[in-house]
Amino acid sequence: KNDKTTLSSTVYNETNPTTFLTDSAPITIESSLSDPKHTLLANADTRSKAKVSFFIDSGASQHLINDKRLFSSLDETADSIKIIVADGKIMSSQGIGKIYFQTITKDGIHDICLQNAYYLPQLECNLLSVKRITENGFTVNFNKNKCVVMKDKTVYLEAISNNNSLYEVIMHEDKVSNHNFAYNCNNHNCLYLWHKRLGHRNINSIKQLVKENIADGIQLDNCQHIGDCIHCIKNKLSEFPYPKEAKYRATQPLDLVHSDLCGPMPTQSVSGKCYFLTFVDDYSRYSMIYLLSKKDEVLSKLKEYIAMTRNKFGRTLKVLRSDNGGEYIGKEI
């Protein structure tokens, strides 16, 4: 309990590596399960070959891992720390190292690296420390159903509340143990590097090139390659469907009006118009359409619409929603 150490953990974003958890000063190790409510954690067996579980723990002062296989690198000669659990038992860490895993949230795919995670084989479950997560600007939000780790409005990690009211992150083992390869492999003939060199060619096709001697100069060494290619996954992702209903609806006429400009049309109207401008009131769905000859007529038609609706409804337009086209964002608008 009096041992001191320095911790640092990092989340890697594919295009912009971001520090996730950092502590550059020595800290005092405290009980990770000091709250009696964590007693349930000691009875939850999460060691499964099919999946790996992490629990978001507000009582843990460090990230604690019970499975040696999850570490991409582990220093078993490092100084041990003492952890006091809820039943009063004292556990000693048996190493410190790095763990890589990948998460997929609504905001994209994130490769996460936990540096200086402690190895405690006696512990019955893996714990992610809220204290460590929040030390470098990340926020941890809890509600009835889930826990969300985010920064700058980007969600990096989500945990679901289980039957024991514990917030659990569940993933397959291949999303944990294999992802160190993307950063640490120095073998110039490994399959993953050839996958990138050949424009992210299918893995089996690359093996076939070598097996059938179709191409010269390709050598493949026995090397543990990454299970999933982040770039390939991203390019195959489909766009989320648009919601069927809006989250916000106006409660009064002209509180919110939707507008859009369409054109130029290939065929002009009888009067020589080739654009049309729409205004749709969100509350009443009252709609107006104006025919335009040029884009720069949008401002005059907007003034005309505001004057007309003020006379008709006795109210003034509050919010105009558009696609931020150039005709809507000029200084005069």
Descriptive overview:
Pfam families: gag_pre-integrs, Pol_BBD, rve. This protein is an alpha+beta fold and 333 residues long. It contains six helices and 18 strands. It has helices at 130-134, 181-184, 191-197, 203-211, 230-236, 298-313; strands at 4-12, 18-28, 52-57, 64-65, 73-75, 82-84, 90-92, 96-105, 108-119, 126-129, 139-142, 146-151, 154-161, 167-171, 257-262, 275-281, 287-292, 320-321. Strands 1, 2, 4, 5, 8 and 9 form a six-stranded mixed sheet that branches. Strands 10-3-14-13-12-11 form a six-stranded mixed sheet. A four-stranded mixed sheet has the order 17-16-15-18, with helices on one face. It is flat. Mean pLDDT is 75; it is low at 1-49 and 178-184.
List keywords for this structure.
single chain; 333 residues; alpha+beta; Cathepsin D, subunit A, domain 1; Nucleotidyltransferase, domain 5; 3 domains; six-stranded mixed beta sheet; 6 helices; 18 strands; 14% helix; disordered N terminus
